[in-house]
Automatic annotation (TrEMBL):
Keywords: Cytoplasm, Methyltransferase, rRNA processing, S-adenosyl-L-methionine, Transferase
Ranges where the RlmG N-terminal domain occurs: 4-180
Enzyme Commission code: 2.1.1.174
Provenance organism: Photobacterium alginatilyticum
Presence of the UniProt keyword DNA-binding in the record: no
Top-level taxonomic group: Bacteria
Protein name: Ribosomal RNA large subunit methyltransferase G
A Pfam entry, by short name: RLMG_N
Gene: rlmG
Organism classification: Bacteria, Pseudomonadati, Pseudomonadota, Gammaproteobacteria, Vibrionales
Gene Ontology BP annotations: methylation
Enzymatic reactions: guanosine(1835) in 23S rRNA + S-adenosyl-L-methionine = N(2)-methylguanosine(1835) in 23S rRNA + S-adenosyl-L-homocysteine + H(+)
Amino acid sequence: MKPELTLHERALTLKRYPVRKNETLQAWDAADEYLINHTQEMALDPLRPILIMNDSFGALSCWFTQKGRVTSVTDSFIARQGCLANLNANQLPHVNIVDCLAELPDNPQLVLIKLPKNNRLLTWQLQQLCNLLPEDCTVIGAAKAKDIHTSTLKLFEKHLGETKTSLAVKKARLIFCQPNPVLAKPLPVPQQWEVPEHELTITNHANVFSSDSLDIGARLLLEHIPQNDNYRDIVDLGCGNGVIGLKAARLNPHASVTCVDESYMAVASCQANAKLNLPTPDQLTAKVGNCLDGLEHDSADLILCNPPFHQQTAITDHIAWQMFCDSKQVLRAKGQLIVIGNRHLGYDGKLRRLFGNVSVVAQNNKFVVYRSGK
């Protein structure tokens, strides 16, 4: 049965962030609606916290902030900005938004978990919750039914407590878990591994791409980072653990390197890696952001970029396009953008359209490294 008021009927102005002109994207899914419907009649204590984990664009936060004290936990700067924008658009109360590495509020009464794509992040969050939750806390996970596997349920059972699932509704399913404090154990330390050919030691927090080895795209790009005594400012855009920025800093010790990513865990990893690998860690600055928002125009000599082509579970090129557009603004005259991408993505066409020039620096059977100059 539907609740008296659903997201549609309440006409909440929920938008994904960022959105290109004339692009309409829905900021919630069937799993969000299933959670709202299921908890509609739940009696909640206005004084005890509600935790919402991995809320993509604020749909759950917008709904539950009217029910009690909400803390939203996310590793995504984009999700945070989307949540804030949607709360503001609907004139809704404040939500406490924290990143996945932050301390969580004590004694929550309800935890809602949208399952992340990365099981390492899910494991981290379940272990974090097991150290925190009282036994009377209600824990409900949600995702598309096709994304809830037996292995997913085993993770809940192993790290948090007894687990059951619901029937599927609109191809979404819920997970119910009873916290068991006996399962609590110290949180795992970040993964650490070596890149001997580049004399680097890399630390990865749970939600950072390629957790235990150098991915093949980064491996190719590392071989083609330029060295130039005239470089003053270098940017690693979409930095992940910062391995590209670290190599650029090593090759260009007189340059200032700025690493940017929308993942808080990526930026924390990058900061740790600068301390591990650079003689002067202050040479590298890591910051969370939406592409290059906030960087001054005409302020960089070289931008290195490995664009993602997924947002949440959607395959999209709009992130790469924004990265390229931002790079053109941030580069100084005669500055260069070096991009790596899968061959089938066809970044050369976008770069030629934007910069008027593009050349192939290197390629293999899967990846191509392109260069465009301003």
